[in-house]
Amino acid sequence: MAADGDLENFDGPAGSSDESMLPEGLPRLDEESEVEVDDAQALVERHAALAEQLRERPHKSAMLRTLGRLLRLIGSVLFAHVLFGQRNADNIRDAAKRGTPVYVMQSRSFLDYLYFNYAFLKHDLPLAQYANGVSTMWVRGPLAWLKGLFRRGPSEKPEEQVQALVKNDEAVFIFLEKPRKEPDENLEFSQKYLTRLIHAQKQVDEPIYVLPMLLIWEKRPDPKRAGFIEDIFGTAQRPGFFRKFVGFFQTFWQSFLRLGQPMVQISTTLNLHEFLREYPNAGSADASELLRGRLLDYLDQERHVILGPTGEPVDKLYKELINRPALTNAVHEIAAEEDVSEDQIRKRAKKQFEEIAATPSLLMLKLFSSVLSFVWYRIYDGFEVDIEGFEKVREAARESSIVLIPSHKSHIDYLVLSYIFYNYGMIAPLIAAGVNLSFWPLGPLFRRAGAFFIRRSFRGEKLYPVVFREYLIRQMEEGYPIEFFIEGTRSRTGKLIKPKYGMLDMIIRAFTSGRIDSVKMVPISVGYEKIIEERSYRREVLGAEKEKESLTGLLKTPKFLTSKYGRLYIEFSEPIDLGSYLDKYDIDRLRPEEDDLDDLTVRLAHRIIYDINHVATVTPSSLTATVLLNNPVRGTDRRRFLHEVGFLLYFLTHRFESTRLSRTLREGLEENKKALDRLKERQPSPALLSRPERTPDADENGAGSAKAPPTMADDGPVRIETVMGEAVSTVIEEAIGLFEDNDQVVIEKTDEDVFYSVPEESRLELAYYRNNIVHYFVPEALLATAIRRFDAPEVPLEPLMEETRFLSRLFKYEWIYEERAEFENVFLRTLAYFEHAGWVSADEISDDTLQVDIPKPFPPELGFFRRLVLSFLEAYALTAELLEEMEGVWEREDLVKKALKRARNDYLRGRILYYETLSKPTFKNAVRLFEDWGVIERQKDAKKGSAYCYRLVDDWEGDKLADLQSHLRAFVYQGD
């Protein structure tokens, strides 16, 4: 059936198309089209002359070197909404720097070509000197057009012109296909140019870089089977003239309403020199056919990453799933076991499927994008996205099923990645959400945006786990990214929660069954300068019951759309290839042992949590909260405060090369880079809270005492910590302002200074932000706490190591430690750092015995680290004391409530130092830890009917429990 005309096919006046200028007798693909010459040097010179001729008198298809005022105006209006990422520009520049770029698109489009002309000029990128199937003469102006009608071009064939240009370092643009043409026509249209690229690469040493280009106007995948309408107007990705025309202006107004925007994406850049090395025995024709296949694969992969699969209707998806062997067998077995018909079990399966299944809609994603763009603008100062990490995720998605595993701190988490992926050019993931969020009317909207729902527990269910697993596997097979929260629930404390294993176990077993070829896990940190739920979290941490989710509950957050919550941060860890991870532990991926899989699931879950922590963003609010809460006095003066901020920054950047600082912190440090670099040369040692009494540059009075670190304006020698603190003072003071707006920080100005203090009722809220980064300091905090426990000038190494090991085990539910890192290695590495810093010294007192010497007074740096974990120690010590009162069986909730009540009373009496010790999640972790240690045991109680009832184990009554209590108190009650 004849299709409508095509804007893409308009090449100017009749007779000016590229084909009209081609000589008769095009070579077949199996013929060598290289011109035979005896003298290779003559060929080089002829091609050089031809390239020079085309530079002086550009081909009719060459991109315009400049745009007139009218064209610039038209371009800025028509093309400004197209997203051309900086990474695309960088890729092209890199290719041009190292060789010759050749741009390739699948389907010929004059509109796309015109856009790239505009974009390449805007970004100062190499312009194409030739393109097959298009002409730019009609946009050069009437005079140039008339001249073109009567000007004779080079006599060489178009494909030889391409070869000459590429050999002489000029970019060209190749379209592989005409819209909606048969394969034979497309081969004739473009294959000769690919063959000439092969010839050119064989004749030059510089590599040719082929860049497969996509310009996505509409983020809608093509249907699996074209219908009547598609036959007439083309598909979204291969449109005819009318659909292209309508689609272009549709995307124009959609961009204005923030419903999405067209985007450019460059797929995997192909080094033609390396490509030919893969096929050393292939002739030029064969190599060009292989090249064509590779390029089409790259374009298809990239298109799939951006657009995703063509989703099946829900009823059709259910019919496919119910006929899968796993579900067929489950239906048969359950029907026999319950003595009911299989139809009844299928009806149950269908009901469960409908409870689970997402119904993703592009329209809903567009609406969400528009609404969220408005909301983000109102409540956040911007997003900081790890673009380099995002590109690694894109690369992983080209060849693997990807599983996104973000941290979970807020309800906003459900929206963030979908918004980022949709607007940054990847298909939005399907998100595993708790079934408690399926309430009307948000539940149906979430489903349309890609949420599928999961019950909190599969306990007692036989059919539901099979339905859920088959649905999950089917969506991964189709190529949907899957997103789930491995913590299971939102963190109320700011620390990551110990992982849940259910979803991860399903995915691992699906992979080892051979049903999914490749899986890559992507740990992701989603961080907030401020979270919208902090008030409700405070109530829950203090013991209040969690409120059930509802539409009004989500929207009635005080001042939700009128408050500012700072910036939002998304950081990606390195994707974890599941196959490689199994190989790492010598597990047969197709025939694994059951115990090996269980162990691997636990190990991988902890690795994911560790990786999320490892890329967590250090923000101004987290630094501010850490310093304010860690100060042992009532208020902190501005100079001291900024010095301690600088201490933490220097520690983080000196100790961890890959620490992710927020952009605002990085910019502050970058602006003072020269001064910081000079100070680093003078001060190579680790960060200090106190300054040495005298330095080589110190003045007569020994400027820079520990009591008052100088500012950059002081006359005495300035330490790097002070300079770093002052360098970021602007953004730190903005964070203080956010806290002050919520009455969480009090600022008092005197004639002499500015003081910051935290009201006691706000300490729990600030502890949330401190806990976002406290994991960076855990090894130092545990060692410092163990050192202080001895309260002696010398400590033998072995007892010190054992006390630190005790603390490490005590906090197994508070922090995740580095995978496969032996405790002894971490301990010695941390001790060596302390010694290098001058905080302690190690002496050999015999051939096999070392002792650690601790200076007097106790180093303030060690006191600072120790105070980071004191509130947790207080909670564990109090819980141990409470166990002494256990008589009979206590429910876990009763035990935690009693701990909270005791903590409140002890705080008022002054026995507990920190208000943030009053934390329900910490007391729950302490109970869980003491159960692991065998101090208490879980007991069934017929009267209470709770699975979480505990009694004190008989062996721990009396002296054994008293020793544990004494041991814990010794860590806590040591004055600084």
TrEMBL record:
PANTHER family recorded: DIHYDROXYACETONE PHOSPHATE ACYLTRANSFERASE, GLYCEROL-3-PHOSPHATE ACYLTRANSFERASE
Any one GO cellular component localisation term in the record: endomembrane system
Cellular compartment(s): Endomembrane system
Protein name: Phospholipid/glycerol acyltransferase domain-containing protein
Membrane topology: Peripheral membrane protein
Main location: membrane
Keywords annotated in UniProt: Acyltransferase, Membrane, Transferase
Keyword Acyltransferase among record annotations: yes
Similarity section: Belongs to the GPAT/DAPAT family.
One protein family per Pfam: GPAT_C
SUPFAM superfamilies reported for this sequence: Glycerol-3-phosphate (1)-acyltransferase
Lineage: Bacteria, Deltaproteobacteria, Bradymonadales, Bradymonadaceae, Persicimonas
Any GO MF annotation of the entry: O-acyltransferase activity
Record-annotated Phospholipid/glycerol acyltransferase domain positions: 402-529
InterPro entries: GPAT/DHAPAT, GPAT/DHAPAT_C, GPAT/DHAPAT_LPLAT, Plipid/glycerol_acylTrfase
